[in-house]
Design brief:
With 250 residues, this protein is α/β, with parallel strands linked by helices. It has 8 helices and 10 strands.
Length: 250
């Protein structure tokens, strides 16, 4: 017992300062795309090289759909004009699908407008996570939020074992046919009102699996998400910031 107490005193407080201080991001972190429309030559090379079909180049504009983007950086690498790059903006989550489009305009993270959600979940959020055919990357980074380093429980956010105890269903993966029924049953079992978080590019649009005959191109065709969290996978700071903003705590 004494050894355990001494170890805790020696280790000190281990939970990070986020969200009260900016997160410590790795050097290779790829955040929200930054597009310099004036520099773009409209050559279309970035559109051709994108493996997820996230880049759209027209005569007048260039846009990257972060709901489809897997943040591989190929578009930035191939852009000879330097019109596309990935910055350090980690606040990527949005409450509406159209806010996931990066087109070079001024970006301001979306504020919550669902008053019913704030009434029910402003102080706490009970989440049932459903892995709907994902590769486990999004699941792993979501699980990180339960660790000492992030401790999402201090904000009243908790994972529950049953959808019957949940305020929210957090979906990862492109919603494979094998998991479609399980997802619907989980949603139906949750008490009303219940909200949906699409976590990761696959859950938003199908990601690199979009168009597969055994996937449903994300959750949107089945359930309407209340929060979209892009990324492949989303960084823990991106996901936590999005949930806190949804709860109007940030």
């Amino acid at each position: 017992m004494w050894n355990a107490l001494k170890a805790r005193l020696r280790q000190g407080y281990r939970t990070g300062k986020f969200p009260f201080a900016p997160p410590v991001l790795p050097d290779r972190f790829a955040g929200r795309p930054e597009i310099a429309a004036d520099a773009c030559t409209k050559c279309g090379e970035c559109e051709k090289v994108c493996p997820a079909g996230a880049v759209a180049v027209s005569e007048n504009s260039v846009a990257i759909d972060t709901g489809k983007c897997i943040f591989c950086g190929k578009c930035a690498d191939i852009c000879a004009a330097g019109a596309v790059k990935f910055g350090k903006e980690y606040r990527l989550a949005a409450m509406s699908r159209e806010k996931l489009i990066a087109d070079g305009g001024i970006y301001e993270p979306e504020r919550p407008t669902d008053r019913e959600f704030l009434k029910f979940c402003g102080n706490s959020l009970k989440i049932r996570q459903v892995s709907a055919g994902g590769c486990a990357a999004c699941e792993l980074d979501f699980n990180v939020l339960n660790t000492l380093a992030w401790d999402m429980g201090r904000f009243g956010i908790q994972v529950v074992a049953s959808p019957r105890h949940a305020d929210c269903i957090l979906v990862t993966g492109p919603v494979s046919e094998n998991m479609l029924l399980a997802l619907k049953k989980s949603y139906d079992a949750a008490p009303r009102p219940v909200w949906v978080i699409a976590c990761g590019t696959c859950a938003i649009s199908g990601g690199i699996y979009a168009g597969s005959p055994v996937c449903n191109d994300g959750v949107e065709k089945i359930l309407k998400p209340d929060l979209y969290v892009p990324g492949c996978p989303p960084h823990p700071a991106t996901l936590l910031e999005g949930m806190l903003r949804l709860m109007n705590k940030k």
